[in-house]
Specification:
Blueprint lengths: L6 E5 L9 H10 L8 E5 L2 H11 L5 E4 L16 H7 L3 E4 L2 H6 L4 H14 L2 E6 L3 H5 L3 H12 L9 E5 L13 H19 L1 H4 L2 E5 L4 H8 L6 E4 L6 H9 L2
The chain binds phosphoenolpyruvate.
């Protein structure tokens, strides 16, 4: 809503081989990037970032990473620096996805350091937050998200360097979504939180919804107040579904 241009971002997670370039080509061939009402971003696994970025060059489709290390280089076997993603042609990186927080024990402090690394490298950081089912059932969803925002977002956020993704953990990959009222409540809360902390710079930060977004529910969810696009896992793997969601904005 308003003057914020939405972002539709696909998170491929640990899916995709070289042959998956066919899905990228379908997105590029559709001409949807740069048209329509939203910016488009695909975050493939690290092995595909450079190839996808090279192929998407000259288009308006952005390519991003799914994680980065806080350091620029060094003895961190298996990790990828934000600078490496930038060098490979990425312009965004997801940090603090709930799967990283759960599988790799990433704390808010770690996520914050990764977001700082993204900025150091010149990438837009997509900082993910969201409560578990137990936290929601206990009435703590806003408390939890507020804590994550405070702990995971570095000082100096602007609409040009930060995207926030609200992804309730229990909605990811489950086919479940919060009610529209519950989504709006949290998104309004996140917007208020960002504008209180970052003033005018927080007002334009895109706040994405993520968690079982699909073509069938996208129009309703993406029209909600303070929802400035979506982060899409499963439904981003097929170009047709991703494009259908983008067209629903
Ligand atoms: C995600 O992991 O960012 C996500 C939203 O997954 P899904 O769309 O599959 O629920």
């Amino acid at each position: 809503p308003g003057t914020i241009r939405p972002l539709i971002a696909g998170n491929w997670k640990m899916n995709g081989l070289q042959g998956s370039v066919a899905e990228l080509d379908a997105i590029l061939g559709s001409g949807a990037a740069g048209k329509g009402n939203a910016d488009l971003l695909i975050c493939p696994p690290a092995t595909l970032v450079a190839g996808f970025a090279a192929r998407a060059k000259g288009s308006q489709l952005a390519i991003g990473g799914q994680d980065c290390h806080a350091e620029a280089s060094g003895a961190h076997t298996g990790d990828i620096a934000a600078e490496m993603l930038k060098d490979a042609g990425a312009t965004y990186v997801i940090v603090g996805h709930s799967e990283r927080r759960a599988d790799h024990g990433e704390s808010d402090a770690v996520v914050r350091a990764k977001a700082e690394a993204a900025w150091r490298a010149g990438l837009v950081a997509i900082v993910c937050v969201g409560e578990t089912r137990a936290e929601r059932d206990a009435g703590r969803a806003m408390d939890v998200v507020g804590g994550q925002l405070a702990g995971s977002i570095p000082d100096g956020a602007t609409s040009a360097n930060l995207v926030v993704a609200y992804e309730p953990v229990w909605a990811i990959g489950t086919g479940l979504t919060p009610t529209s009222e519950d989504i709006e409540q949290i998104h309004t809360f996140i917007r208020k939180n960002l504008t209180e902390r970052f003033k005018a710079d927080g007002a334009g930060v895109r706040v994405l919804y993520g968690g079982s977004l699909k073509p069938g529910n996208a129009a309703e969810i993406l029209a909600l107040a303070d929802v400035n696009g979506g982060l899409i896992g499963g439904a981003s793997l097929k170009a047709a579904d991703f494009l259908a969601i983008a067209a629903a904005v």
